[in-house]
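Human:
I keep going back and forth on a fold encoding question. Comparing notes only helps if you start from a blank page. Show me how you would write down a chain together with its backbone fold. Write it directly below this note and I will take it from there.

Assistant:
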Amino acid sequence: MNTLKPNKNNYCFCTAAFGNQYRTTAKLLATDLEKFATSFPLVIFTDKPQDFQNYPNVIAVKHWCRGVKAYHERRFAIQYGLSYSDTVIYLDADIRICAPIPERLEFLPGLTARSCTSMAKHLKKFARKGSNIKAQRKKEIIEKMASKAGVDLDSPELKFINEFLFVIKADRGRELEFLHMWGKLAIYADTLGLHNNPTYAMALAAVKTNFPVFRSKMSGVDFFDDQIEKERICQGQSDFNAKAEYFRAQYEVEQKERRLLKRLMRKVYRPLTVFYNLTRVRLTAAFNPSMLTDYQY
């Protein structure tokens, strides 16, 4: 494993990449950053760090998932990145960078998201779903998470964070309190059956620890996300041909994962993995919770 040389005046990137599909897209992201952000490393927490040994800008760290699924594991990559720089830019592993990133990017202490909105506004959609049992169960879990954190879901400070691209900047140690509370709420959500959507644990942890949340367009960061790009095209803000090469690369990766044998394997393997991990998390949370929440690097 490569080691980071602390450089508190600059920033670094980080992501989490578990499974073949996300390791493949993370390699594309690493190539983009080597081209467009040469001076800044990319920290990747992954199940197979050896896959990144030929990427000179990558610090690949072997990590086993504490939770039922890998969605919350990014918090460990962020904390590792904070040992290098006081500013860590998180990107989902399937994001692409399309143009040079400035040498200097300024952010306020706290969490800065490319996209966020009022949590109260977001939660109103659950009321509209009426008889949707799955949605109502999700709402109940979020309410239990808020109760555990001692946070009012109607608080104007509570934000729904679109977690595909955000920045954590150190705030006198408050960032570590935030990450720890995020972990506690993530594991609690796991034990209740909510394994996706890190935004709820992140938002509640931010309010609980007084870690400020900001929204920024992040000028200077030209990125590609297939879902967001499709929305831009529908709204007339972009054209398919402008990012066609990125759509093609994403399609090729996804097609490899959709081959018949792999699809059949996923239908059997994934439910068994979730069941095993859920049992593991519930038992560990009951008898040794620090094993799931404490930073161990």
